[in-house]
Write a structure and sequence with these properties.
Number of strands of chain A: 21
Largest interface: A-B, 57 and 49 residues
Structural class of chain A: mainly beta
Shape of chain A: globular
Structural class of chain B: mainly beta
Number of helices of chain B: 9
Largest sheet of chain A: 14 strands, antiparallel, barrel
Number of strands of chain B: 42
Radius of gyration of chain A: 25 Å
Strand content of chain A: over 45%
Oligomer: heterodimer
Radius of gyration of chain B: 47 Å
Shape of chain B: elongated
Helix content of chain A: 10-25%
Order of helices and strands of chain A: HEHEHEEHEEEEEEEEHEEEEEEEEHE
Chain lengths: ~400, ~725
């Protein structure tokens, strides 16, 4: 299954819209696993469940800065477009999609604490402020309309969402102090933790429902194409089995207090009970959350008869994702083969670059584009990002 | 068929979509964790209960059980009562800015008036020409009509107690004016503010007058009118006619003392008052300086003023880090119906107060309290200045002289850190009171020879004043057999004197003095007293202070050379010390015990190696050697965690007492092999060997023990 998965994600490319009038089946993939500090070999080890050794940790530690970002966005979809004779000039679309989203920001001390331990913070305070960790998994069934009149393209679809999993941890004013020789540990934090139903966390779980919209408008002038695109903008309500923790904790641990040094057993039992009571009380409540939508503006122009330049700016609605600028240059070797080069800055990472190809043959329009290949070229790269699309004219 | 293909493709898509599950939960890495594990403490009471104590031979250490019978210090000697100072102030000096207005009427306007007649026409027609002016206003004088003066942007109404209106008229016309009657009144009102007649205003000249405004109410919309005005003309002398020439009036309203006003007020202090704050509850104690350990300064402010008030409490004699106390806040405006009531609290802790009153500050800043003299130094008194101020906001507000401000300044819950001065000659009585006397409960029969027990009554004086301590009554009670024994001793008949503590400037800033009376068979019935094996003591004690000072020192003596001091931590305490000699078979006292030891094994495979830190804070003045050994269930040694490690002794001060413990850290490094023994062990053997010199051990001495671990842990 992993081979299937890998094969699928390599079939990738980005297309803005339909351009013919035939019924069409379209597969899209969008895989982004990036960070401005965490190296790809580290992410790969984490993803594959490997042992993260000191070399991996040290290489990433050298990149750390005050605020660090790590994000992942996996979006897979399959959409069927009718031909335009079905509904006047409009085409109807049906689709399904699956999305797994992760966004996190963390301090340098947080990384060092989690992956090196608190020994390094002996007699120091670890700054854990600004920790955010947000994950969401959901699927959708989409219905939409699509119209292409030659100069303008308009598309709008409405998606019914099935939420599988959601978690959101956010802390402020969080510190952990480790005393000299470990004589005491003091932890304080403010924040919250929201979790969807923890008794059923599988992909097939139905823990939430919601709605989303996707929107595209594109206008063609005599020498350029402009457009705006909104994807996955919506909200979900996770059921009342969801958990809300309000974190307002100050805790100091000096070791188990042994009242009678010569008979410690009873004391140990007592302290364990007390430690249990330190956990913040969970509140069962339904959670209404927004989906991580994306807004994209793009501009595309033919520089020569054989070369095309596209510039786009996108922003994912997450504080871990900065404004992302993309520049793509595509060269037409032949009508059926068009390689491309990509440069960009922003997103979950900073600078990124990549390569792509577009092959049109028979009824297929197949494209591949790796938009951040640093993570593939060398271990020192920081991210992997792929976009892909396969169109099949039926 | 085509639809079947589509359906198949959709199914394949769904399978692909749900096939990707990363193995995040299987990733692992190693961290270095540092954590406390356990802590405990050990006192001599714990050791006494242990059956391994062997008393024999003549090598001795002494255990001294110290029971505090009575104690008093700054918090009980000086109980500061909350000090309240009230200010009630009406607004005696409401200041308003001088108001200045200028208006004028041109020759052209005057000549165009209906009653200007032919002279007016001549003037209009000859603008720019040299012509003689015929007489004007005969027989009907000219009038200017009403001229509006709008000052409503500066004030709406001024209800004046007093004020001056300066009125000046400048004649810019080319001819003299005669019999000019001027009127000023409020718009829409009939009451005349000003009416005056000026017989002659020469051409190019001016006339002026000043008018009292006592009791007048002036509106922001005023009317000025020249009721009558004539001119003799210029005869045959031609003059240049310029219709822009003007008759100009300048109005200045000054030195205003309003009863009330709705106006824009300038920035001004409405309350500005120095006052003294005497410390209450001190009796005949005379303090020249004190430091506050804790307390609050509370200000309650009640204001009827329709504007925000900014107030400041300033105490030049209250210093913290070298800076005088300044406390600022804002009292919100009254709503016009109800007074605004605000309560502010400021921390007053850590301020050092100069309690000499106005004298020291007036020597620097001059007279502060308005008595035109530099006040002499006093005691128990600090000073403060309270200022209430309004800012110039540019907004029109209503203020009246009967508006009031009321402040209550309170120093509450004051606890002193130290005090310098004279502490008085009070005699303090303690008791009759009964206290528990439990240490003999741990003395098992045969472990002590009570004939060797000695008892002393000891007074520890941490106060900078001498004290005469008298034991009026001391009774031992054995509640088991209800037997009581009264202590009698010739040594106690006249009490015993304890010299004052002395200042050192160090930490602590004083040296306590100790005075003790040893009670034995020769001077008391102490043997019967102790052999009663009391579990309770009942006492009555009197402490007379400053017996070495014959007369109350003067204020100047208290200030120049404070005879006494007292610190919060410097108590005068009376203790009963029971000293028990211990005799051991050898030079070492060895304590050995074995206790149950079981660690949960669920995380064993995630720990690879590390170090145990045994942190010992030794409060005993005895060096010790410690060993910790893990045993299996049959008592077979598995692992020596700590072997013959030395624990440093605590240091003694000049009085032979331990004030601070000495820390020793014993590290034990373990590897994965050791871990098997650690997790398999079911017993822990603890061995402590006390190498004792001849020192006294007090029952308050404690050994603090803490076990921490620094280990490699694999996260999974």
């Amino acid at each position: 299954m992993r081979i299937l998965f890998t094969a699928f994600i390599i079939i990738g490319f980005q297309s803005l819209a339909q351009n013919d009038s035939l019924a069409q089946l379209q597969f899209e993939s969008n895989i982004d696993l990036s960070s401005n500090v965490v190296r790809s070999d580290f992410i790969r080890a984490f993803y594959q469940g490997s042992f993260i050794d000191n070399e991996l940790k040290n290489n990433t530690r050298s990149n750390l800065r005050d605020i660090n970002r790590l994000g992942g966005d996996l979006r897979l979809s399959s959409t069927f477009y009718t031909n335009d004779t079905l509904f006047n000039d409009f085409r109807i679309s049906f689709g399904i999609s699956h999305r797994q989203f992760l966004a996190s920001t963390f301090s340098e001390d947080f990384f060092n604490l989690i992956f090196y331990g608190n020994s390094a913070f002996e007699n120091q305070e670890a700054n854990l402020n600004g920790l955010t960790f947000r994950t969401m998994t959901y699927q959708s069934i989409d219905f939409g309309i699509y119209k292409n009149n030659g100069d303008d393209i308009f598309a709008l679809s409405l998606g019914i969402l099935k939420g599988s999993q959601y978690s959101h941890l956010h802390t402020e004013d969080a510190t952990l102090f480790t005393g000299m020789n470990g004589t005491n540990i003091s932890f304080s934090a403010n924040g919250f933790l929201n979790l969807s139903d923890t008794s059923n966390t599988s992909v097939t779980a139905l823990n939430g429902t919601g709605l989303k919209i996707d929107f595209l408008y594109q206008k063609k002038t005599y020498d350029a194409i402009y457009g705006v695109k909104l994807t996955d903008v919506g909200a979900m309500s996770f059921n009342n089995q969801s958990l809300h923790y309000n974190i307002d904790t100050t805790y100091q641990f000096n070791g188990i207090e042994i009242d009678n040094l010569l008979s410690p057993s009873d004391s140990i039992l007592t302290v364990e009970t007390n430690v249990d009571s330190l956990a913040p009380q969970a509140e069962n409540k339904s959670l209404i959350v927004s989906t991580p939508g994306r807004l994209t503006f793009f501009f595309k122009s033919e520089i020569t008869k054989k070369s095309t330049l596209m510039v786009s700016v996108d922003k994912l609605f997450s504080n871990a994702y900065t404004m992302n600028l993309n520049v793509d240059y595509k060269y037409k070797v032949s009508e059926s083969f068009k390689p491309s080069v990509h440069l960009g800055y922003g997103g979950f990472t900073n600078e990124h670059f990549g390569l792509g190809i577009n092959i049109e043959k028979y009824k297929f329009d197949l494209s591949l584009q790796a938009r951040a290949v640093q993570g593939l070229i060398g271990k020192g790269g920081l991210n992997h990002t792929f976009f892909g699309q396969l169109k099949w004219n039926l | 068929m085509k639809h079947l293909n589509l359906l198949l493709i959709f199914f394949v898509s769904i399978l692909i979509l749900f096939s990707c599950r990363p193995k995040f939960d299987e990733a692992s890495w190693e961290v270095n964790a540092l954590t406390p594990i356990a802590q405990s403490s050990l006192s001599i009471q714990d050791l006494l209960a242990d059956s391994m104590i062997n008393i024999a031979g003549d090598s001795s250490i002494s255990l001294v059980f110290q029971n505090e019978i009575a104690s008093y210090g700054l918090d009980s000697m000086i109980q500061f009562r909350d000090t309240t100072l009230s200010y009630s102030a009406s607004i005696q000096n409401l200041e308003l800015s001088d108001q200045v207005f200028t208006y004028g009427i041109s020759l052209g306007e005057l000549a165009s008036a209906p009653d200007a007649g032919i002279a007016g026409s001549i003037i209009i027609l000859n603008n720019g020409n040299l012509v003689p002016i015929v007489p004007i206003g005969d027989p009907t004088p000219l009038s200017t009509g009403e001229i509006d003066i709008d000052a409503s942007s500066l004030f709406q109404t001024l209800d004046l107690d007093s004020g001056i209106l300066d009125f000046e008229v400048e004649n810019g016309f080319p001819f003299d004016l005669t019999d000019v009657i001027v009127l000023m009144k409020n718009h829409g009102g009939s009451e005349v503010i000003l009416q005056d007649t000026f017989p002659l205003i020469p051409s190019g000249g001016s006339v002026s007058g000043s008018y009292e405004l006592h009791g007048q109410t002036i509106s922001g919309n005023l009317i000025v009118q020249v009721l009558e005005m004539s001119s003799p003309g210029t005869g045959l002398t031609p003059v240049l006619i310029d219709t822009s020439d003007a008759l100009v009036s300048n109005l200045v309203i000054r030195d205003l003392v309003p009863l009330s006003a709705t106006a824009i007020f300038p920035e001004q202090n409405l309350v500005d008052k120095w006052d003294r704050m005497p410390m209450k509850g001190l009796g005949d104690i005379r303090l020249s300086e004190m430091k506050i350990k804790s307390g609050l300064l509370e200000i309650e402010a009640i204001s009827t003023i329709n504007d925000s008030m900014f107030f400041e409490i300033y105490m030049p004699g209250a210093l913290k880090d070298g800076e005088p106390l300044r406390m600022l806040s804002t009292i919100p405006p009254s709503d016009g119906v109800n007074a605004s009531i605000s309560v502010f609290q400021f921390p007053f802790n850590d301020y050092t107060l100069d309690l000499r009153g106005f004298g020291p500050q007036e020597a620097i800043m001059g007279d502060l309290n308005g008595n035109n003299a530099t006040d002499p130094d006093t005691v128990n008194t600090y000073i403060q200045k309270i200022t209430g101020r309004i800012d110039s906001t540019g907004q029109i507000v209503n203020l009246a002289l009967n508006d009031s401000l009321r402040f209550k300044v309170r120093a509450v819950n004051i606890v002193g850190e130290y005090g310098l001065g004279y502490l008085g000659k009070d005699t303090v009585h303690f008791g009759p009171e009964t206290i528990d006397f439990e240490f003999l409960n741990n003395v098992t029969s045969g472990s002590l020879d009570l004939n060797d027990v000695s008892v002393s009554l000891e007074v520890n004086n941490g106060i900078g004043a001498d004290a005469l301590v008298t034991i009026d009554e001391l009774t031992s009670t054995n509640s088991t057999n209800e037997n009581t024994v009264n202590l009698t001793s010739s040594e106690l008949d006249n009490g015993f004197l304890v010299n004052p503590a002395t200042l050192t400037g160090g930490t602590p800033p004083y040296n306590s003095t100790v005075s003790a009376v040893v009670l034995d068979e020769s001077n008391s019935n102490i043997e019967a007293f102790i052999e009663n094996l009391p579990d309770q003591l009942t006492y009555t004690i009197s402490i007379e202070q400053n017996t070495l000072i014959n007369s109350t020192p003067s204020i100047s003596e208290v200030i120049s050379n404070p005879p006494n001091f007292i610190y919060f931590d410097g108590n005068l305490s009376a203790n009963m010390n029971v000293e028990i000699p211990l005799h051991f078979a050898s030079n070492q006292l060895t304590l050995v015990d074995t206790t149950e030891f079981n660690l949960a094994q669920q995380n064993q495979d995630q720990i690879s190696s590390g170090t145990f830190n045994l942190i010992i804070d030794n409060g005993f003045p005895i060096e010790a050697v410690s060993s910790l050994t893990l045993l299996d269930e049959f008592g077979t040694p598995l692992l020596d965690l700590v072997s013959q490690e030395t624990i440093a002794a605590a240091e003694l001060d000049q009085n032979g007492l331990v004030n601070n413990s000495t820390q020793s850290i014993i590290k034990f490094t373990f590897n994965s092999d050791d871990l098997n023994a650690i997790f398999e062990a079911s017993q822990l053997s603890i061995q402590v060997e006390l190498n004792h010199p001849s020192v006294k051990i007090y029952d308050r001495y404690i050994i603090g023990i803490q076990l921490t671990a620094d280990f490699n842990y694999t996260f999974q």
